[in-house]
Design brief:
The protein is elongated, with a radius of gyration of 31 Å. The strands form eleven sheets. A five-stranded mixed β-sheet has the order 2-1-5-9-6, sandwiched between helices. Strands 10-23-22-21 form a four-stranded antiparallel β-sheet, with no helix packed on it. It has a four-stranded antiparallel β-sheet with strand order 11-12-13-14, with no helix packed on it. It has five domains: 1-26 and 377-446, no CATH class; 31-255, no CATH class; 287-372 and 448-498, no CATH class; 504-616, Immunoglobulin-like (Sandwich); 620-711, Immunoglobulin-like (Sandwich). It contains six helices and 37 strands. With 711 residues, it is mainly beta. Bound molecules: zinc ion.
């Protein structure tokens, strides 16, 4: 298959699957946005604004909805031979209406610009004279020309739409220049090649109501003048999607022709950018764009101070970090999305709120210069096959493997597969082995925001980490230190080790080959080839286990190791009883990481029911006490095994505590015990700080562990 054919196949499929994630979104069109590639439109942020049209003040815009006399295709939001539903709500007539509709362009730009850019105007509907075939043969430029001259001119006074003069790129004055500023043509069709296009189609300009209407896009040298853009409103688009397409095309007039991402199958990342982006993953303008257009200031994050992030979209607060060893204009942008605005749709998971990190290689080019760094991390995704269970077509199944911090993909990226042209995640196999269908590249059911409780640290040690675009280490780390009512306080320490440790990945230890059945080996350090480094000041780890999905977490290990091996229950990946593990670490300052991912496995219960699981063990065991160190009390768990068949029923058990000189300071258990798991509290009130030992003796079994009282 040729490169071009592959691209078209991919884009069509993506259109089918994106949006509302329904096969009904099928759009016969090809590319999403027809703007041609060009040089990067960048300049110093000392001067800001829109390139080809103003980004401030009041811009009067004409929206023309146009349909064909022979088009009877049903459209839920646009009846044949009439105006689209809610036509007058797509744009406000003036700056005082303040419509709140989610598909209102005035509302959209009002919110994105924090009240500095007023896009107002009117919307009209016209039906064409000629058939669809006429324009199929002659293209959208011919259709736009025909519609504007024959149908729109009698309805509209074009002199109302000349308010601005373009003096130079980025420089606009609020006086008429004899040329119409902006017409948005919206077609009830799928037959144009692009979902949107930043021009009116490059026909020769013409005069109407004493004003010139030009049909190019100013970035193209051959056709330097323009008066509008062209959009489709396909038969299954919702009004919100139609507005996203309009905003994206206006975005090209504001920010330039190139996209910050590649539109081909070879592009890599899903993101939000260029206002509503071409794939309509989200409609929110990102911090670079708002900064670029002069709508917000984005200060550089300063070390050793606390920074308060209020809601990004409604207050415009954002910060950025420039890695000194990165590209000249490389930045991490940080935005706090609390989803207070209808336009804050940066993720399909409505519960996923907090700090989002955008990593931008440089000013926008037609390439993958912008990437989301979701807190969920980068992974080595496995492809256990292809399925037709989702969206009625063959799609690759994605399953999360081990961490691949440096070069792996996140759930927001395209993920190359060896077997499929589709490399967005539409089918996800969860740790329980179930298939899930969704637009996971839009964040559905995944977590991307950094938040106080789940993932508070972004650093050289986290997954994803704060490396440069080219994977060079940077000293940058941030830690969420507070979060109250959606206001997030972030600290950036000049010494990364001052922050809490990043949360760990917990999984089967790749450095241990278990040969004994019924045993498990886990690790949460840097055991994976592209796993996470461990902070140098981490000196303590804790591993907890839960048996059954409704069990309680019990500490199984505390100490300096980041590996653990156990055979105290019958681990078996084909067992019926879930066994869950989680871990965390602590550093020399006493700061804890967040809990790791939950690692799931199963166990076999020879007695068949979960309730009897305490009898599974055929060994005595004495678990590490928790907490440790402690003051004044701690908990000690021990296990008395089932007896062999025919043996008498009970065992004599002793659990005693000794100081470092071997003097007994407490007797916790001294008597017969049934088989099972027991938890005993030990209170050190009255004892001095220091090291103590506790010893379990039963049925010929003796083991001793150490604990520390710190007062
Ligand atoms: Zn575009």
């Amino acid at each position: 298959m040729s490169r071009t054919l592959r691209s078209i196949f991919f884009v069509v499929l993506l259109l089918v699957l994106s949006g509302s994630v329904s096969a009904q979104d099928a759009d016969g069109g090809g590319k999403l946005c027809g703007t041609l590639s060009g040089a990067a439109s960048s300049r110093s942020l000392d001067g800001t604004g829109g390139i080809y049209m103003t980004s401030r003040g009041t811009l009067r815009v004409l929206i023309v909805f146009a349909s064909f006399p022979d088009d009877e295709t049903p459209h839920p939001y646009w009846p044949a031979h009439g105006p689209p539903l809610f036509m007058q709500q797509f744009i406000d007539p003036d700056t005082t209406s303040n419509s709140q509709a989610s598909y209102n362009l005035t509302n959209y730009f009002h919110q994105m610009s924090l009240g500095q850019f007023h896009v107002v105007g009117e919307a009209v509907w016209v039906e064409m004279t000629h058939s669809q075939l006429e324009y199929w043969n002659n293209g959208f430029g011919r259709a736009n020309l025909n519609a504007l001259q024959e149908r729109v001119d009698p309805l509209v006074d074009f002199s109302m739409y000349d308010g601005w003069t373009k003096e130079a790129n980025y420089t606009h004055t609020n006086v008429p220049d004899g040329q119409v500023d902006m017409i948005i043509m919206v077609w009830r069709t799928t037959m144009w090649e692009f979902l949107g296009e930043a021009s009116l189609g490059y026909k020769p300009g013409f005069l109407a109501d004493g004003k010139r209407i030009e049909m190019g896009f100013p970035e193209r040298i051959a056709f330097p003048l323009g008066s509008g853009v062209t959009c489709k409103y396909p038969y299954n688009d919702r009004p919100y999607q139609a507005m996203q397409t309009m905003a994206h095309e206006l975005g090209h007039w504001l920010l330039g022709g190139p996209h910050p991402y590649s539109t081909t199958i070879f592009g890599k990342h899903a993101y939000w950018g260029l206002l509503c982006n071409g794939q309509r993953v989200a409609s929110c303008a990102n911090a670079y764009e708002r900064e670029r257009l002069g709508w917000i200031d984005v200060p550089e994050i300063q070390p050793d101070s606390n920074l308060t992030f209020t809601d990004y979209l409604s207050t415009g607060v954002a910060y950025k970090y420039h890695p000194a060893n990165g590209y000249p204009f490389e930045y991490f942008y940080m935005e706090n999305h609390q989803r207070l605005s209808v336009f804050d749709d940066v993720t399909a998971n409505s519960a996923d709120k907090g700090i989002w990190v955008l990593h931008q290689k440089g000013p926008y080019m037609e390439m993958d210069d912008l990437r989301i760094r979701p807190s969920d991390g980068n992974w080595n995704w496995e492809n256990p096959g292809v399925t037709t269970q989702c969206f009625s077509q063959g799609l690759p199944v994605f399953k999360r493997g081990v961490p691949k911090t440096l070069t792996g993909e996140s759930h927001r990226d395209q993920i190359p597969t060896p077997t499929s042209l589709v490399n967005w995640m539409f089918v996800f196999k969860n740790p329980e082995g179930e298939l899930n269908c969704g637009a996971f590249f839009r964040g559905e059911r995944f977590v991307g925001a950094f938040s106080a409780d789940v993932s508070p640290v972004f650093s050289p040690y986290s997954n994803p980490n704060s490396n440069t675009w080219d994977n060079q280490a940077t000293p940058f780390s941030f830690e969420i230190v507070d979060e109250i009512d959606g206001v997030v306080t972030v600290r950036y320490n000049s010494n990364q080790l001052d922050a809490a440790p990043a949360r760990r990945y917990l999984g089967r230890d790749p450095t241990v080959q278990d040969t004994l059945s019924g045993w498990i080996s886990l690790a949460w350090g840097a055991q994976w080839p592209e796993g996470q480094n461990l902070e140098a000041d981490v000196n303590w780890s804790e591993l907890q286990r839960q048996i059954g999905d409704n069990g309680v977490w019990i500490t199984m290990y505390v100490g300096q190791a980041t590996q653990w091996r156990d055979g105290s229950i019958a681990y078996d990946t084909s067992g019926a009883i879930p066994v869950l593990f989680r871990s965390r670490v602590r550093d020399a300052q006493g700061k804890y990481s967040a809990w790791s991912n939950i690692h799931r496995t199963t166990m076999v219960n020879p007695n068949g029911t979960e309730e009897q699981r305490n009898e599974v063990s055929n060994r005595y065991s004495l678990e590490p006490n928790y907490p440790n160190p402690f003051n004044p009390s701690t908990k000690i768990v021990y296990r008395v095994p089932s007896l062999a068949a025919g043996q008498a029923g009970q065992e004599f058990v002793e659990l005693r505590v000794f100081d470092v000189l071997g003097r007994e300071v407490a007797t916790l258990v001294d008597g017969v015990k049934e088989p099972g798991e027991y938890s005993v509290a030990f209170d050190a009130t009255g004892l001095a700080s220091g090291v103590y030992f506790y010893r379990l003796t039963a049925g010929g079994f003796t083991t001793t562990r150490r604990m520390i009282v710190v007062k």
